[in-house]
Write a structure and sequence with these properties.
alpha+beta; extended; 5-stranded antiparallel beta sheet
Amino acid sequence: MMLQMLMFPFEAESVAYCVCSSFGLDTSDYSFPYIAGWSSSREMKEMKASMDVIRKTAGEMIDQLTEELEIILEEKQKTELHEKYGILVDALEAAGYRYDYRESEPGHIVLAPDGTHEIAGYLQFESWGDIKDWLEDTIAEGTDISERVDRALYPFKFDYTLEEEMFRGNGDRYAIYHVDEGTPGKQHLFMNMAMVKEDGITIDAANYKCVYSGRLHENEKMDDLYAVFNDNPPADYKAHSMSVSDVIITNRGGDMQAYYVDRFGFAELPEFAAQREKILDIVPEIENVDYENDLTCISFYAAECAEFPVMGEVHYDLTLPEALEAYEKIPSERMHGLKCVGFDLKDGSDYEGMQSLMIEGKIQKEFLNSIPGFRENSYVQNAISRVEKYLEERHPNVENPLESNKKVDNEKNISEEKNEKELNIQMKPIPKKKRGEMSL
């Protein structure tokens, strides 16, 4: 559009030459003869005016193109960074930091704070290994952000989402909801409550999706949340700024309240929280069973060899998160066999004993559910669900210190020999060992 405003063709060519030169493209072989031919018959006054036009137009175009190229380059860098360090990037954002693309270079990683969390200024690291160590320290500190970092780095350790934790009363928490534009809720997107009532629209939790959930600080009010998610949102918040038609649920000391973000202030939604709780199928834990830590009825193990755990490295009497973590650390290239996570059922039934739960990243759900004693056992089914979630949430293509030695077979055509071996592992009884014993 800028070139259409120029008076002479040689001005357009001159601008093109200046812009191309600025970006390392040499067009002099064509541009110089063309410009010389057009300018030879021009008056000096006319030439001076043209030079001003050329300088101004070329400068504007160079600035505009430079800005657009920087945006494109940064997006490319973001994509490449996430492909390589996705889990660590997510954990950094959960901790309140963004990777600074402009300042970082190999051997010098700069992290910029999002300004929301109570943290220090810019951080600098030499490697992603150093960042991993810092994230581990952040988890160990037990601060407000420790849980978010832990979830981002080790998602398989958690049975419930942050939204579900809010409904289960695990501390004072909040959740933010946006209209799901793929539902009938789009009819009141960004509408204030007066317009909603005037049109006879019912606010239904089924038309919303949770976009963020976190801990609610002492004395933190709705206006405080609105300010945070407009002025300086957390680094791991990926949705639009808090706006009219959004909904906030808070749970402070068991008092669950839902509010519609209105044009001015907030309007209460008495039914929204209960609707959302029903959608999530939040029900009391059966007999308050602690599936994660109660080892009296079921415990877990990680072994180098699924068929014969006595051959090679094995870890017994673990919780499921501990077993999954131990499993990750066993190198897949060991020659004793296929590494696994298994369970030791101790419920007094005819089915108690040791059995493989996951072999080389492949859950044994079909086999386990073919046995009534496992299919109807709440401990086994809970373990299956948690391992399924672990498999869904992990990032097999990301360079993750916990997964760097993992060897996952994603080929569609698995050899008949390996299938037969896995079937034999499922069907054979596993030798029993004393609890806590480890074979080398």
